[in-house]
Amino acid sequence: MLNDDIEAREKFLFTLNWLLAVTKRHSGNLQFCLAHINFENPRILGETYGAQKASHKLDEVSHFLRKTFRKTDLVARDGGDFWILVPYTPPEEKLFDKIKYIIEIASQGGLQIVERDISIFPLSQHAIEHCEDCTALDFLSYLKKNHISLASREISLPHSE
């Protein structure tokens, strides 16, 4: 992972920890959402390109996402997972369509060989109630594990042959 990715990830986790604490105290007053993009099978990427080139391709997607989103949106990469913290959430359809478009464009460099799941989560009291004492990393893991029941919107982009 590049230094920019490590720095972005740390900034993202720090901000998410703060938002989780504030959301617990002031439910309903904040408008944030989390978008999760999961490249389903990093093993296929590694076997197709080799581990180093696959990692480089994922770094390119991370850079592309950070460049394409607003400066107030935070993008973090964790392996084959990308998380985007979006303040003052635009209408869900616009956000969802934008992420889908960005991933399709970014994937033209070969990453379309794996399935990509996109999930949108509102950062609300309901989303954090089952993860009361979670760190940001624990919360992201909880969302990923329970994405079917917690996501307000979800799509899977199939792999290309």
From TrEMBL:
Organism, scientific name: Ferrigenium kumadai
Name of this chain's protein: GGDEF domain-containing protein
Any Pfam family matching the protein: GGDEF
Location of the GGDEF domain: 26-101
